[in-house]
Structure to design on (226 residues):
């Protein structure tokens, strides 16, 4: 079974500052890991994903995440926050069980201050 | 990438009634998934729908409340039965393709 823990339901940063959203996972099999973003009243958008291979994954809008197996972590970072990054971010894990059932973390709301 | 269409996009329903949500994928997929997103919360998996077999429900969800059909490899329905205000949520359909989950835009349900 898989599970995801996102540390911090709310994160606030200043515009131009580093964004760090934390995610730890649990999986009994090699996991696939994802970060999704959801803007108010909109659907989910995939930011990036890790399946196999390089552990540092780059996504859209300047975001990246690093898969650290020893720490069971998949933290999301962006060097410089922009006002438009304000949204809800979901970390998710899936593993092949006949198909890929995706389990979501509770989400982290990112606030960006001018 | 798979394109998923859901309808209706939103509805306001009376308590005690039922609503059926349709989900259409533009390609054949083995498994489809139904999620619920309650206001201000994350996505919770309701069930996994396989073609030709009964859906598999997650803990806390039962077939009588959320019956699911999966008549073919591109289509599924979720019915929210005997609705109460607590069922007010966004319901999302999902399918996986090449290890990635794709989502419909969701159905925003309000029960009054």
């Amino acid at each position: 079974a898989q599970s995801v823990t996102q540390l911090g339901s709310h994160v606030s940063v200043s515009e131009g500052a580093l964004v760090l959203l934390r995610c730890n996972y649990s999986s009994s099999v090699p996991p696939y890991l994802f970060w999704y973003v959801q803007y108010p009243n909109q659907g989910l958008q995939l930011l990036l994903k890790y399946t196999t291979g390089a552990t540092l994954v780059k996504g859209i809008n300047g975001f990246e995440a690093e898969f650290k197996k020893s720490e069971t972590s998949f933290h999301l970072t962006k060097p410089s926050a922009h006002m438009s990054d304000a949204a809800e971010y979901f970390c998710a894990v899936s593993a092949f069980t006949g198909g890929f059932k995706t389990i979501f973390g509770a989400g982290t709301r990112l606030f960006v201050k001018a | 990438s798979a394109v998923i269409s859901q309808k209706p996009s939103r509805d306001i329903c009376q308590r005690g009634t039922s609503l059926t949500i349709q989900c259409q994928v533009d390609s054949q997929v083995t498994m489809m998934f139904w999620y619920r997103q309650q206001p201000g919360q994350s996505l919770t998996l309701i069930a996994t729908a396989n073609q030709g077999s009964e859906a598999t429900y997650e803990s806390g969800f039962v077939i009588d409340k959320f019956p699911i059909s999966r008549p073919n490899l591109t289509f599924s329905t979720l019915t929210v039965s005997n609705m109460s205000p607590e069922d007010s949520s966004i319901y999302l359909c999902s399918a996986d393709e090449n290890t990635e989950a794709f989502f419909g835009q969701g159905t925003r349900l309000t029960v009054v």
Chain B has a mean pLDDT of 92.
